[in-house]
Amino acid sequence: MSESEILDLALRLWPQARENGVIDDPTDLDRLLTAQNQPGAPNHDCGQRYTFACFAPDAEPSFTLATGESAEGDDARFIAHLLVTRTLLAVGLAIDERVSGAMADAYAYSWTATGGDYRQSPLALAASLWLIALDPASNSDQPIQIDWSSACFDDSERWDPEYKLFSHYDIRERALNWAIYVSGAPGRIEGVSVWTVVEPLLRMENDWRTAQTLGQLSEVAGSGSEQAPAAAMLERNRVANLLRAHLASGMA
Questions:
Q1: Facing residues of 71 across strands?
Q2: pLDDT tens digits, one per residue of 3-41
Q3: Residue 4's Cα: distance from chain center in Å?
Q4: Closest CA to 133 of 214, 29, 72, 65
Q5: What are the structural domain ranges in the chain?
Q6: Taking a C-beta distance cutoff of 8 angstroms, is the pair 75, 1 a contact?
Q7: CB under 8 Å, gap of 24 or more: what pairs does 179-184 form?
Q8: Which helix (H) or strand (E) holds 71?
Q9: Each residue of 135-150: pLDDT tens digit?
């Protein structure tokens, strides 16, 4: 549980949305959508319209994921936006402009920075992988409708003013390159469970990059070096079982 009703709702709905693609009461999704473009949402003050406000503007946000990692401050605000967005995507709401806009805003802040330094925490980037896994157009050259006119993107050291056109495929490529990079050395995702990176990758198209990344992460995870509270270890074990089944099916 967190101190945010919106985030707690998104997290409560997530297992059913993830496993079944539907939830029992769709009006719960309307409750999530009411949090969009409200004070306290990430980058709301500089003009982003589609991010979700899970915490009040004057709050000091913090929460812990089911897999045991903790987030605080502005990082927590952005990750909470990602968690709400993934729940909405999982039930098929990418067709809704509010959700496609939330995904575009998340992509812009996760994967479009220039120079290969995405300037997000490893936990935020790992959470953002879910959006790519659930994006129905992730393998297409369809342009992403990012509102670059927002004052949020005025930092020319972070964003290239001459490079503003990104497709869904471009974002997927950058994310997979990051996943391969971090799978080579666990220290590159310090504070993030390997299993948090693994699960969304299992939902992506199985090409050589996902296969290589999952193979390397399985070796890291096989070391048994992770520790967390029992509830978090049970959640990680759920993903471990999924990975074992995936790797076994590839050898069949």
A1: 63
A2: 899 999 999 999 999 999 999 999 999 999 999 999 999
A3: 18
A4: 214
A5: 5-251
A6: no
A7: 179/129, 179/209, 179/210, 179/213, 180/209, 180/212, 180/213, 180/216, 182/122, 183/212, 183/213, 183/216, 183/217, 183/220, 184/216
A8: strand 70-72
A9: 999 999 999 999 999 8
